[in-house]
Amino acid sequence: GTVQVFLQPIAYMVEMKEQLEVTDLKGNKIGIMNLEVAPCNKKGREYTETDDKFVDSPDELVGKDVHFVFKIVNCRGLPNKYTDVHCKYRVYLDETDVCTEKISLTANPDFNHKKQFSFNPATRQLVDYLNNGSIMVQIVGKQYIRKSAVASKKGMSTKEMLKSDRAVFAKTANLMNGFQMNGRVVDPQKQSIVVELLLMKKTQARLQQRCDNMKKMLEKAEKLGRSGVSCTTIKSFFNAHTDEQFTNSMKQLEGNPTIHIRGATI
Q1: What local confidence, expressed as pLDDT, does residue 202 receive?
Q2: Of 189, 16, 2, 161, nearest to 78 (Cα)?
Q3: Mean pLDDT computed over 167-184
Q4: How would residue 35 be classed by pLDDT, with cut points 50, 70 and 90?
């Protein structure tokens, strides 16, 4: 089966944790995959909210070093008739596959795969790939034929053999129904919408923070009796995304009174 993973969150330096459907060649759902994509530093430490690495536009990444980790945590509800089950994928211009470990005869393989990708620096082509491209993860394995199944089917007609196999297929279907009820399953065709919502939420939070900063700056300036605020101070508040940055902006406002020269505010 395959799973398509959109990389747009990385283009905005945002972490994504998703549960995506595994589909076969006919587009039928045959399982789910839990995976994560997260921006990090060159040593592999994943960024958190306090690191404030979110960018308003992917264009800001051009010319800068970009690092991110790609994780395939596990799959659930896969057909358990395969051995050497593993995932393989390629990122950007890679010519060889990245592969997970091989796991056999289980519907719920735990891969716990993690790989870091680094680009020093990010080119325009790479940024366009992150913003508009995706990783296609393939889940492959070797079909396992049970000896007991072969022995039990000796002397059976084709119709009888198919009827016997339906019982095995039904077990997998029931398992999948359980995951649908108890877990959140995301349709691959809908993943792009999920990504867009994730980024919209992050952008909205950033805009709200800037509005709050401007409001607090104006209130403070009024208390200080200021008739104007310098462009440098305004820019400082506008770009303050952490408590430390906001505190520094407040100190700048308190310590740098505006100067009026011929009616102009500096």
Answers
A1: 72
A2: 2
A3: 40
A4: very high
